[in-house]
Design goal:
The chain is of the alpha/beta class. The chain is built from eleven helices and twelve strands. The chain has a domain of 81 residues. The longest helix is centred in the middle third of the chain and has 18 residues. The model has no long low-confidence stretch (mean pLDDT 91).
Amino acid sequence: MSQPLLEIHDLKTYFINKHTEVHAVDGIDLTVFPGQIVSIVGESGSGKSMTSLSIMRLVPKPTGKIVSGTVKFAGKDLLSLTEGQMKDIRGNEISMIFQEPMTALNPVMTVGEQISEVLLRHRNVSRREALGKAVDMLKFVGVPRAQEIVREYPHQLSGGMRQRVMIAMAMVCEPKLLIADEPTTALDVTIQAQVLELMKQMRENFHTSIILITHDLGVVADMADHVVVMYAGQVVESVDADELFCQPLHPYTKALMASIPSLEEEKETLYSIPGTVPNAAHFPKGCRFAERCSMAQPRCHDVQPTLRQIKPGHHVRCDVI
């Protein structure tokens, strides 16, 4: 296999103030190869979005801080770069589609101005050329009336159309890596399928690697080559997508699978995982899933398991399997 495009090792991102220390991301490892789609899944509060913001060096300040670890992208350690060097990478080599396009887009700039701004920042082009490229990119992502849409403002567009604008903006410089943070959450099923198909086309046309953050295992099954399951700021299972659905090993992954409604069997009540994700400021001493786990042993509450390789390409953080 080719060299990894992105390698994350022991990344820790904390939020620190006078009274608490919140371990939002607590020692994760992640590898993405060129042209690969890696999906990060887990409940709200598991650290998925904060992982993506850490890669982009966009952790909210002053309380948020990347305290340790390495993030190597195309051979460069992103955590050692200056802010100026990171600005050259953001939007150019690494782009991000945020969860809510209405808050991510600037309400007082036209769609064309916002897409053009990315090109003017990273490419030696005129404003006319940048606007022409913006129109071409909007057509590529399936926006009708692209010539007119470039003159409109975000509030004039539907949710699905705003998400397509976000994708066009993210892809206009043909980045090597696209991070998509729950890109289909607020969309109806039809538009959701169109957006996911569009992302597949981008992988095929530009050989773009994609980190897809989602809680929807149906999306994972359709899109991902490799899956990283996160829980309470840690990776609990890392495995190829096909094997994840055939043979999940971690109790948390199994519980997520059991929560998926089935069309083949009738149930009066759907399964839900008991309890909640532990407070990131007060994680338990042992396994962070132990309080909710049906397989937990007494030692699970005292000893924190390490992420270990079960077989090539399949890593699990559990001592009882």
